[in-house]
Amino acid sequence: MARSRDWDWRNVQDTKQRLGQLLDEAWEKFDLYQRLREGGCWQPVTDAYETPEAYIIQMELAGLTKEEVGVEVRQFELTIYGQRQPERNGACCSHQVLERFRGPFARRFQLPQETDPQAISARMENGLLIVTVPKSGSRQQKRRIEVIEE
User: Fold this and answer.
1) pTM here?
2) Domain identity same for 21 and 55
3) Secondary structure of the chain: what % helix, strand, coil (to 5)?
4) pLDDT tens digits for 65-81?
5) Distance (Å) of CA 77 to CA 20, 85, 146
6) Which of 2-16, 64-78, 93-107 has the lowest average pLDDT?
7) CA dihedral 56, 60, 63, 65 (to 10 degrees)
8) Residues 103, 136: Cα–Cα separation, whole Å
9) Helices (H) and strands (E) in the chain, counts
């Protein structure tokens, strides 16, 4: 009984408030929008569509060169990855608006069994990466795809 008299409800309120703060901090750490704003990760705008002969993936990568982009296929999983480096404008400039994402990115696409991973091609056209995945075949080896510039 002596313990119940010593119980201080202010401790409960303080604990509740601190727990709320910890949960808010944890949510901010895992919030995707927050990570995107801070440059932790980003996903390029991507379109994927099917033609009678192939699957086509188009990814907007303005400002990146073919050397800054990687395309790999392994067991019917296509991975496109790279990194946009921050611009170095020197100490003379201060940004007024900074909306383009920087830092690493990666996208994975599960390919249907009817595709031919050995025949995948990729090219860069005016900041647009175009990956063509022909239909037919079913080999399952890892292969790096060279990106060409046109």
Assistant:
1) 0.62
2) no
3) 25, 35, 35
4) 889 899 999 888 999 98
5) 41, 26, 16
6) 2-16
7) -20
8) 35
9) 3, 9
